[in-house]
Design brief:
heterodimer; A: 86 residues; mainly alpha; 0% strand; B: mainly alpha; two-stranded antiparallel ribbon; 11 helices; disordered C terminus
Chain lengths: 86, 252
Amino acid sequence: MTDAVIVVALLLVAASATVAVATRDPERQALVLSVLGVVLAVLFTVLQAPDVGLSQLAVGSAVTPLLLLLTVRKVRRRPRRKEPPP
Amino acid sequence: MNRRLRLWLVGVGGAGLAALLVAACLDLPRFGGDRHPYGDRAVRASLSRHTANTISSVNFDQRAFDTLGEMSILFAAVLGCVVLLRQTRDEHRDRPEPAEVARPVRGYALLVLPVALLTGLYVIAHGQLSPGGGFQGGVVAATALHLLYLGADYRALERVRPIGVFEVGDALSAAAYLVTGLAAVLAGTAFLTNTLLPYGTFNTLSSGGTVPLLNAAIGMEVACAVVVLLARFLDQAVEIEQDKGEGEVRAP
């Protein structure tokens, strides 16, 4: 039973990590990374490492995607300002 | 170095790494086995010092010096971000417009904020007893504050988050960790040795000697560091604008 849960969690991690690599748009990638963070936290918890799971949940699924989204917003905002000629 | 040589170098390096990894994997103990020599010793050491969460005992007692290194890495990284993301001479600050927030989003954010903040503080306080600790709880508490940005707007967040206080808090808590370590030296033992305080009653908040102190210092350090880090990113994303004239000259 436990083995089945571990296998499912591993497969989910592999799937979401592949999607994260295959996604090229940074905004979507941030969302996929957040999902990957949750799935990894589940995997760590299943493997009896709840401490690491908590860190992963806090950093991987909240802080990293947030930093990515803020960076994308900053980078995208500059060209848009230039579009109307002064 | 030309292209072929570089490819060759990468190929040799990659093949060597792969061979070593496979060799190491073949020697690993079987998955889910019941022999854990390191784990058994760590659990014995943590129980002898009345720390219920062995991971915390490893982090803040048996390997407290490693944690000092990790804390310094986070501190240096945040310091680097603060320096890199400062407001430069060709930039100015625009006051962000108050934004419309959908009612359900606002309600949800303001409802979850206190719960998340309390959860973070709980996780820090119970680091020596249950899974979690200063690092995890610190990140949760710091991100919880930012629900205010989702629920209200940036100005509301700035009002509850005086950035100078958090910068001082970051430095103070990093220093507190060092001072706790040095106190052990003054008491005549090695740096960061956990012999200073009584170990207390097993499985209570005050158990574990200096573990709760170091754990609290890390919690405060991480919370302050994440708040400062996110503040710099938010400033750049929301407030700081490049001046028009120079921005165009510099644009590629």
